[in-house]
Design goal:
This protein is α+β, with helices and mostly antiparallel strands and 137 residues long. The protein is built from three helices and six strands, in the order H-E-E-H-E-E-E-E-H. The protein has a single domain, classed as Aspartate Aminotransferase, domain 1. The strands form two sheets. It has a four-stranded antiparallel sheet with strand order 1-2-6-5, with helices on one face. A hairpin with a 4-residue loop joins strand 3 and strand 4. Helix 1 runs parallel beside helix 3. The longest helix has 26 residues. The chain is globular, with a radius of gyration of 15 Å. 27% of the residues are buried.
Amino acid sequence: MKPHVSLNPDVSQLDPGIVPLVQVINRLGLPTFYSCEGHGKQAPGSFRSPFPMVVIFPEPNPDGACRMLRLMGMIGIHNGDVQSREDVHWVVMPEEDGGLMLRPLSRHTSPRIYRQGITALVFRLQEMDAWYRWVEG
């Protein structure tokens, strides 16, 4: 059964650190279901994710597929902390329920670097989306 997905989730129900990324993904026309800002290393059995992630459910049609491919092309960029030379490499991975999880490739990065990676990714997505809209003009 497909979970409830939304293009306009209630931000009061989201972790504050992931809200900008969820919002930019939704503005790209991709509905989201679940997200987390990442909480660093967790004790075994914890329900909190150690890394940031957003689960996306593109519409099952050519338009949804095109939007998802565009997003995947946009995230193929390394971003993170320039000063410490730590990068956050973002990947999209399939989920069992049909969703696609956007998350960092490494699960062992500090929450501070993850936050910087989220900020950098949001900036890059907004920049690339503006370019696509201008080209399609």
